[in-house]
C-alpha cells in the first residue's frame, strides 16, 4: 500500500510542478529539455522505489530543477547573448546551391541530410535548386528554394 500512496503523491507533485513551470510542446523540445526530463525521471524513480529517498526529497529535487529551467528561460528571453550561449544559433550550411563544407563538417551534417530535408520539405531534387539551407537550433534543417526566373 505504501507504493501506491507514494506513486499518487509523486504524480500530484509532478502535475502541480509542471503546471507551475509552464507548457512546452514536444516538437520544440531541445536536447537539454530531454536531459532535464531524464533527470526528473531519475528523481521520481528514487522517490517511488528508493529505500532511503523520501517523496519530499524527490519533490524538492524536481522543483529545484524546474525552477532553474524556468529561470534560465526567463534570462534567455531578456538576453540574446545568453540565449545564443545556451541554445546556439542557426547556421547556414548551403548558400546559393553551394554546400558550405566546413560548416557542415563542424555540425556533422552531410549533403544527403540536406537533400533529404529538401526533398521532404520542398520537393527539391538537386542542390542547385536550394537558395539556403539552415541548420536550426532544434537540429532540423530548413530549406529555402531558389526562385525560378
TrEMBL record:
According to Swiss-Prot or TrEMBL, what is its membrane topology? Multi-pass membrane protein
- Listed Pfam families: DUF421 (PF04239), YetF_N (PF20730)
Leader sequence range is none
Q: Which UniProt keywords apply?
A: Cell membrane, Membrane, Transmembrane, Transmembrane helix
Location of the YetF-like N-terminal transmembrane domain: 5-67
Give TM regions: 6-22, 55-75
- YetF C-terminal domain boundaries: 78-148
According to its UniProt record, where is this protein mainly located?
A: membrane
Q: Which InterPro entries match?
A: DUF421, UPF0702_alpha/beta_dom_sf, YetF_N
| One Gene Ontology cellular component annotation held by this UniProt entry | plasma membrane
| Cellular compartment(s) | Cell membrane
**Family classification:** Belongs to the UPF0702 family.
Name of the featured protein: DUF421 domain-containing protein
Q: Which organism does this record belong to?
A: Microvirga makkahensis
Traced from the root, the source organism's taxonomic lineage reads:
Bacteria, Pseudomonadati, Pseudomonadota, Alphaproteobacteria, Hyphomicrobiales
